[in-house]
């Protein structure tokens, strides 16, 4: 009985630990929440916001490994001249943004070793970091949580000349992948070994189908300095369901323990009753079958009898 309890508690604790550790792993916010954080940190790079100049930003310590830059442009200039070289991006002429703003900011992101963390792609391996290009209104350079402007090409596509590309394993074909700001994923062919193209803003990389079964997304190591999850509705929903899982497993575990102990108790009772019955049976059998010889006749004899049977001939009145 004690052993059973111990085992049950052990199982219950293991379950709880499992839930806890999976909780600790999911401390990465959504890609959209990251976009918002990076817009903020890219805008902070503007000390003198000269147009057409790229300013490199610094990211918070909990995002070390990610690079951001920002470039401010007049919408008219973007459309008529494009940007021949903004990091890996070549922006052609004819790019327009909606809604129309007088000046816009192009935020560049290089997610580095965080690429697969924020953009997990089961069944594929990244050959280059995920790069982002997003457009925002330049009206207020202290503003945060800005919505993206919708920028689109009218004639030629935007060319992405990846500089940091691993060569694909022999026999496999590399592909361009793009994620638009609504999260939809598109695959397309490379223009050349390290060049992709796009007609709109978003996140881009070069991938190859992985032969190994899809690896689970790598979780980042615990970040120092209170690197909690980026606040977001999705994150809250997740932690809520986690709480329900914990509550559910505790209640379920306790119910199971109760059930098992009742079962054990009943089994013990049953065994006792069986023993009692056997003892009674044995006693009865002894009384009825235990025969004693009295003279040359057999007579049943109880073990304890008040009057011993005697022969009549011996009877002396
Ligand atoms: C710019 O945005 C900041 C932060 O949201 C706000 O405090 C400030 O008033 C805004 N400035 C203008 C000119 O709108
Ligand atoms: C990409 O960049 C490399 C060097 O950085 C250059 O030689 C090549 O011409 C570029 N390709 C395109 C399509 O821009
Ligand atoms: C994203 O979704 C919004 C609302 O559904 C839509 O207006 C917008 O065009 C979409 N953007 C892209 C790039 O698909
Ligand atoms: C993705 O590809 C489909 C078909 O190839 C195309 O209709 C769609 O516009 C593409 N979406 C993006 C965001 O490029
Ligand atoms: C990326 O590398 C930096 C150090 O360069 C490290 O601090 C960070 O934790 C790494 N991120 C991930 C997701 O591994
Ligand atoms: C990183 O830290 C900043 C503040 O230092 C916070 O605003 C942001 O949400 C954090 N991001 C992540 C992914 O933890």
UniProtKB/TrEMBL annotation:
PANTHER family: EXPRESSED PROTEIN, PROTEIN, PUTATIVE (DUF1191)-RELATED. Keywords: Membrane, Signal, Transmembrane, Transmembrane helix. The keyword Plastid does not apply. The keyword Transmembrane helix applies. It comes from Eucalyptus globulus. Residues 215-236 are annotated as: Disordered. Residues 1-24 form the signal peptide. This is Uncharacterized protein. The lineage of its organism: Eukaryota, Viridiplantae, Streptophyta, Embryophyta, Tracheophyta. Residues 215-224 have a biased composition (Pro residues). InterPro entries: DUF1191. The chain crosses the membrane at residues 243-267.
């Amino acid at each position: 009985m004690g052993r059973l309890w111990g085992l049950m508690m052990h199982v219950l604790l293991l379950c709880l630990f499992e839930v806890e550790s999976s909780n600790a792993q999911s401390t990465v916010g959504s890609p959209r929440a990251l976009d918002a954080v990076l817009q903020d940190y890219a805008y902070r790079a503007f000390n003198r916001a000269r147009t057409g100049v790229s300013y490199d930003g610094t990211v918070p310590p909990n995002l070390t490994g990610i690079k951001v830059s920002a470039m401010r442009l007049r919408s008219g200039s973007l459309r008529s001249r494009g940007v021949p070289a903004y990091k890996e991006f070549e922006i052609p002429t004819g790019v327009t943004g909606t809604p129309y703003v007088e000046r816009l900011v192009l935020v560049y992101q290089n997610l580095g070793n965080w690429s697969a963390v924020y953009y997990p792609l089961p069944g594929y391996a990244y050959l280059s970091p995920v790069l982002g290009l997003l457009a925002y209104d330049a009206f207020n350079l202290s503003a945060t949580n800005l919505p993206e402007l919708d920028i689109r090409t009218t004639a030629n596509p935007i060319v992405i000349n990846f500089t940091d590309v691993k060569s694909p394993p022999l026999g496999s074909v590399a592909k361009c992948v793009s994620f638009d700001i609504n999260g939809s994923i598109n695959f397309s062919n490379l223009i050349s070994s390290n060049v992709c193209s796009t007609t709109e803003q978003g996140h881009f990389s070069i991938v190859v189908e992985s032969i190994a079964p899809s690896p689970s997304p790598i979780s980042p190591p615990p970040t120092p300095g209170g690197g909690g999850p980026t606040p977001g509705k999705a994150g809250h929903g997740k932690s809520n369901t986690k709480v329900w899982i914990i509550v559910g497993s505790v209640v379920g575990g306790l119910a199971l323990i109760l059930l098992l102990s009742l079962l054990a108790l009943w089994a013990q009772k049953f065994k006792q009753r069986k023993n009692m019955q056997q003892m009674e049976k044995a006693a009865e059998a002894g009384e009825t079958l235990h025969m004693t010889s009295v003279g040359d006749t057999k007579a049943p004899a109880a073990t304890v009898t008040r009057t011993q049977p005697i022969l009549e001939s011996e009877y002396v009145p």
